Amino acid sequence: xxxxxxxxxxxxxxxxxxxxxxxxxxxxxxxxxxxxxxxxxxxxxxxxxxxxxxxxxxxxxxxxxxxxxxxxxxxxxxxxxxxxxxxxxxxxxxxxxxxxxxxxxxxxxxxxxxxxxxxxxxxxxxxxxxxxxxxxxxxxxxxxxxxxxxxxxxxxxxxxxxxxxxxxxxxxxxxxxxxxxxxxxxxxxxxxxxxxxxxxxxxxxxxxxxxxxxxxxxxxxxxxxxxxxxxxxxxxxxxxxxxxxxxxxxxxxxxxxxxxxxxxxxxxxxxxxxxxxxxxxxxxxxxxxxxxxxxxxxxxxxxxxxxxxxxxxxxxxxxxxxxxxxxxxxxxxxxxxxxxxxxxxxxxxxxxxxxxxxxxxxxxxxxxxxx
Length: 371
Prior knowledge:
The chain is mainly alpha-helical. It contains 15 helices and no strands. The chain has one domain (about 15-360). It starts with 12 loop residues before the first helix and ends in a 7-residue tail after the last helix. Helix 1 packs antiparallel against helix 2 and helix 7 packs antiparallel against helix 11. The mean pLDDT is about 90.
């Protein structure tokens, strides 16, 4: 059965650091750094982290209060995501109307509505031309919100069943991950458009549910160590898995291009799975070198502001292409560093000026514990 004594995860610099790495490779890829052709796999790293964290938060609430309040959960998610997103959409729409001809207005308006309604991924899947306006990257936020809704409902349904346990939820999460990966690979081999499969929710659930499954492995291990497969993980096993996970992610990020068959025939899930494995190792052992490396202050800081970096890097990159800096006479590497620095500065302003206020409101809405 579900344990009433699930350990609280708390804020972990190592997880922030992994998120920091993810946002940096996405930033470099979308700014056009040619040595990061597979930087888009950073999104799968985000997905795995989200699956892990959301699952843990839901079950921590169940442990503390004996139930899961869906209303409170969605309010907290809204306070975390929506305020900065609204500002981003307003800026993007205004910039398009100023910098582009009126013919773009209907498409940009539809995109803005879809972003705020969290269905931009389906708009992009059905019409790749809708990437206009610097908001196309929000497809991943839509998939995350779809996951929040789907998984929260599933977790609530399972936890209300008599005899439900963490292993049952874990089996469900891994089954969904496998089904999503198989569906995407099958659709690719049947000739479906890559642009559709890249942004469609049901074709991109493998990474996020692998993260959820790993969260349940962790909780199951702490709940019943003798029944946990993780009891066999010793110091050298953990270090071997960490080495393999890093090697897999690095190889994919540096070699795989976005439309390569590798990405659709399992690559997205492999990136998410490798990230989930690294997350797990940070939770199991004091010997985790990933936990130590990812806890570096600079990486953890990038993880803290990663949401704002992700929101702003595409519109800023479109408004400030490398060609705009030609008059400075800087070498290409310096131009790219300058563009990235501008994105980070704007993102820091968004985080400290917008996000942090609403994060304080979110943290006040913690559910009371069982008396």
